[in-house]
Design a protein that fits this description.
The protein has about 120 residues and is mainly beta. It is built from 2 helices and 9 strands.
Length: about 120
């Protein structure tokens, strides 16, 4: 049985921990992806270990939220979101209004290779 996957596979176009955000009074680091000239913070991922791929599920376009671009390349992240994000964006319980408020949208139809876990 062959599994058909209808997505564009992009390798190494993800930057881990590139976005710093406050989520329910805690500091969180989100991955960023670039696609079609836009940069997105990834809210949730879907992993397919059988295929060795992961796909962003929900994203926030960096341009749609107040943020700071870090001028110093030695900073541990490239962007810092100015407004706190509710934890409901991450656990799937956010209302449509909250998702709209933060510009959350379905991710582009792309996938990335899973990094191997070292035990």
């Amino acid at each position: 049985m062959t599994t058909k996957i209808d997505i564009q596979i992009i390798s190494d176009s993800e930057t881990e921990n590139a976005v710093q955000a406050d989520v329910s009074s805690r500091t969180a680091y989100l991955s960023s992806i670039e696609h079609d000239g836009k940069t997105f913070a990834v809210i949730t991922w879907i992993a397919n270990h059988e295929l060795g791929l992961k796909k962003p599920e929900w994203v926030i376009p960096i341009s749609s939220v107040a943020h700071q671009t870090m001028p110093d390349t030695s900073a541990p992240y490239r962007w810092r979101l100015s407004d706190p994000l509710p934890s409901s964006l991450f656990d799937g319980s956010a209302s449509r209004q909250v998702r709209r408020q933060f510009g959350v949208q379905p991710a582009p139809n792309i996938a990335f290779k899973l990094k191997r876990q070292h035990h």
